[in-house]
Amino acid sequence: MALMSSFAPRLSDADLLARIQSYHWWHSIALREGLTTFGGKTEAILAQEEQALLSPFDLAGRSVIDIGAWNGYFSFAAKRRGAARVLATDSYIWNHPIWRGRETFDLARAELGLDVEALMLDPPQITPQLGLFDVVMFLGVFYHLYDPIEVMARLRGITRQLLLVETHSDLTDQARPGMVFYPGAILNQDATNWWGPNPATMLHLFLQLGFTRIFYRDHPTLGRARGIYAAFTPEVAEGLILRFDDNWRDLDVPGAIEALVTA
Ligand SMILES: C[S@@+](CC[C@H](N)C(=O)[O-])C[C@H]1O[C@@H](n2cnc3c(N)ncnc32)[C@H](O)[C@@H]1O
Asked: Which of 104, 150, 151, 173 would staple 123 via disulfide (CB 3.0–4.6 Å)?
């Protein structure tokens, strides 16, 4: 795919700063020396999230899809870590008249000059026609969906090796599977937040969908309030996993959920 930056004239620093300031950002992305987008998530938090999410894996030569990419930080990170193909997708925020997410993604991609594809796609529209991806990233999206379980089945249909999920969590002190429903805007005054699953729910959902190994860690800065899950298909290649550090737990062994709840 041709890069946007091949065709657009290079903006002056002043014009780039003005473009950055004309948008709201979620990701703080260094676009040029001294020119970083002003995201709700700081560069430091994103660096810790990237380390937690991506450092256990060797992405070199893999195909990666980022569902709900927003400004594109994790798509760009996957490309920089050597992924052969990265497809960034989004819909809600990319079409939002105030957040104008697609424009922010396009600006960042052009400035960074990274060969990352983009597709306007709402998670419930995912079908096997998209093809298989070695790595599917589903970060910060699960709890925004009214029917996340149906979407997880769709994600299974496009996952060749690894489904990486980051989500708000609830009921984390309980070993029984449970998921809290948040009607209206009761979670963080945001009417797009619907669900808070606990690790037991996620484990059994992954197993139900045919994932065979499931690893879990707490969020690197928010702790148990959010969870990160790495779920592998039976076809996972040996070389994909580099190393899970001590923050990660193997959830699909007997007693793992009980040990997590009491930790
Ligand atoms: C909290 S942001 C996460 C962005 C990025 N993946 C990250 O982890 O930083 C939530 C993302 O979910 C997407 N999304 C998908 N379906 C949504 C829905 N029904 N309501 C709200 N957001 C939705 C948004 O467009 C947005 O990109």
From this structure: 151
Domain contains 10: no
For ligand 1, whether the C-beta of 140 sits within 6 Å is yes
Residues 6 or more apart whose CB falls under 8 angstroms from that of 222 comprise none
- pTM score, whole prediction: 0.96
By most ligand atoms within 8 Å of CB, the mutation choice from 64, 141, 219 for ligand 1 is 141
Asked, for residue 226, whether it belongs to a domain, the answer is yes
102: domain CATH number is 3.40.50.150
DSSP E strand boundaries for the chain: 25-27, 30-32, 35-36, 39-41, 63-67, 85-90, 117-120, 133-139, 159-168, 179-181, 195-197, 213-219, 223-232, 249-250
State mean pLDDT over 161-165.
Answer: 98
How many separate domains does the chain show? 1
Cα 254 to averaged position of ligand 1 atoms, centre (Å):
33
- Residue 156 counted as domain residue: yes
* Residues whose CB falls within 8 Å of the CB of residue 160, separated by 6 or more in sequence, listed in order: 63, 132, 133, 134, 233, 235
Q: How far is the CA of 190 from the centre of ligand 1 (A)?
A: 12
The boundaries of the domain holding residue 235 are: 50-262
Residue 88 lies in a domain: yes
